[in-house]
Specification:
The chain is α+β, with helices and mostly antiparallel strands and 192 residues long. The chain has one domain: 3-Layer(aba) Sandwich (Aminopeptidase), CATH 3.40.630. Strands 1, 2, 3, 4, 5, 6, 7 and 8 form an 8-stranded mixed β-sheet that branches. It binds coenzyme A.
Length: 192
């Protein structure tokens, strides 16, 4: 039997995304059919980007990016993009699909001009599916995002502070200037 080939690609267009089949296991954030529609909407946003890992025509994992919501504090910073969601279908987890997709994405120099944030809320974590407890899951995510250059960042964001396992992670591109990094830290800690 030949090895299954996983193709990693993006940013994909909404039409391309809808022409693929969503794995029926991609239900972490909402039912997979609705999530496919939501991903297609993100493709149409200004600065919206969706990357997929697919096996033939089946999407088995994805990562999304967008500009932060205009009412959030992060929107004030012109170089901040938000990693909105990452999910791999349960039957494909633990085989390097998620890590491979992140490394594929951040191999592109275009990210070096941006600060990419990821807000990690424990209520989104699939602890039941992995058998990990909240802290084990958090450790797994620290390694998962850490390999792609993300680090935990101090913040007074009340949504993050709501639970001690929640965390704000950020990847600061190598081309981001000192002033932009300072502004980001001030925004994160609520000083501006
Ligand atoms: C987080 C997620 C995207 C990782 O995808 P993946 O394809 O399994 O990732 P990888 O195979 O590259 O493995 C990443 C790490 O997860 C660990 N892992 C994967 N499946 C696991 C399982 N069932 N039990 C324990 N650890 C597991 C791997 O061992 C690896 O750990 P390491 O970094 O110490 O080597 C996937 O678990 C997922 O979709 N989870 C639900 C959604 C979610 O939690 N999104 C992120 C936060 S919002």
């Amino acid at each position: 039997m030949s090895a299954v080939e996983i193709v990693m690609e993006g940013p994909v267009s909404g039409d391309c995304l809808l022409s693929l089949q969503m794995s029926a296991g991609l239900n972490n954030f909402r039912p997979f059919e609705k999530q496919q529609q939501a991903l297609a909407v993100i493709c149409g946003f200004d600065a919206g980007r969706v990357y997929v890992a697919r096996s033939e025509k089946e999407i088995v994992g994805y990562v999304t990016f967008h500009r932060p919501d205009e009412y959030s504090r992060w929107h004030r910073h012109p170089r901040v993009l938000e990693l909105g969601g990452v999910e791999v279908s349960p039957g494909w987890r633990g085989r390097g699909v998620g890590s491979g997709l992140l490394l594929h994405i951040f191999n592109d120099d275009c990210w070096e001009d941006y600060i990419v944030i990821s807000t990690e809320y424990f209520r989104h974590w699939d602890t039941a599916g992995t058998g990990l407890d909240i802290w084990g899951y958090r450790k797994m995510l620290d390694g998962f995002f850490g390999r792609a250059g993300f680090m935990p960042v101090s913040t007074n964001d009340p949504d993050i502070l709501e639970h001690p396992a929640n965390v704000l992670m950020a990847r600061v591109g190598s081309g981001v200037g000192w002033d932009d990094v300072m502004d980001f830290e001030e925004i994160a800690t609520g000083r501006i």
